[in-house]
Amino acid sequence: MTMAVGNVAQERLSKRFDKWDANGDGVLEPSDFVTEAANIARAFGETPDSAKGEQLRDGFTAMFQHLAAKAGVGAQGPLDRAQFLRAAGEVVEGGAATFNPVLGPVTRGIVALADKNGDGVIDDAEFATWLNAIGLGEEEGRAAFQQIDTDKSGTLSEDELLDAVRRFHTGELDVELLG
Ligand SMILES: [Ca+2]
Ligand SMILES: [Ca+2]
Ligand SMILES: [Ca+2]
């Protein structure tokens, strides 16, 4: 049985569509995702063609291909809003099993950009830089850190961050980590 995705989830996906439609032409194409990846890389002080910038771009490109395949359009798209909402809605409502393969590479790419000391997890200072890069305030950030750090280790792992991105899209969490 397929559960309909809730209103909050639909709204958040619709907002995501607007953000990801980088050239604002009302459809998503691979080039929109390449632009978004480049913008995020720059926000973390990396060039888009650095190793970390390329990792993120590859994650975004892979995500586009997943969504395009789900929507039944070609690998180059385009994906219109209705197609995106349907395809991404399925990805969200399927839970971690469908969400993680699609959003995992993107989240990993952002974690790599944010993980300045290279220990594989995100500490307080790195998280503050992350929030700054996506334009979130420090106060929201402190509360968010506690909510995302589900094992209370004092650092955020890739799994915790990916789960937070997923719970944002189901409406269970209010921190928008993807900007
Ligand atoms: Ca576009
Ligand atoms: Ca770190
Ligand atoms: Ca943790």
Small molecules held by this entry: calcium ion
Q: Count the E strands.
A: 2
Based on CA atoms alone, the radius of gyration comes out at 16 Å
Level-2 CATH architecture? Orthogonal Bundle
Domain count: the total is 1
**SS field, number of helical segments:** 8
The largest beta-sheet arranges its strands as 1-2
The residue fraction in helices comes out at 55-70%
The sequence of SSEs as H and E is HEHHEHHHHH
CATH class: Mainly Alpha
In the predicted model, the low-confidence regions spanning at least 5 consecutive residues are none
C-alpha end-to-end distance: 32 Å
Shape: globular
Decide which structural class fits the backbone: mainly alpha
- What value does the average pLDDT take? 93
Strand percentage lies at under 5%
CATH superfamily: EF-hand
Write down the CATH topology: Recoverin, domain 1
The main sheet comes to: 2 strands, antiparallel
Characterization of the model:
With 179 residues, the chain is mainly alpha-helical. It has a single domain (7-169), classed as Recoverin, domain 1. The chain is built from 8 helices and 2 strands, in the order H-E-H-H-E-H-H-H-H-H. It has a two-stranded antiparallel ribbon with strand order 1-2. Helix 1 packs across helix 4, helix 4 crosses helix 5 and helix 5 crosses helix 8. The longest helix is centred in the middle third of the chain and has 21 residues, at 51-71.
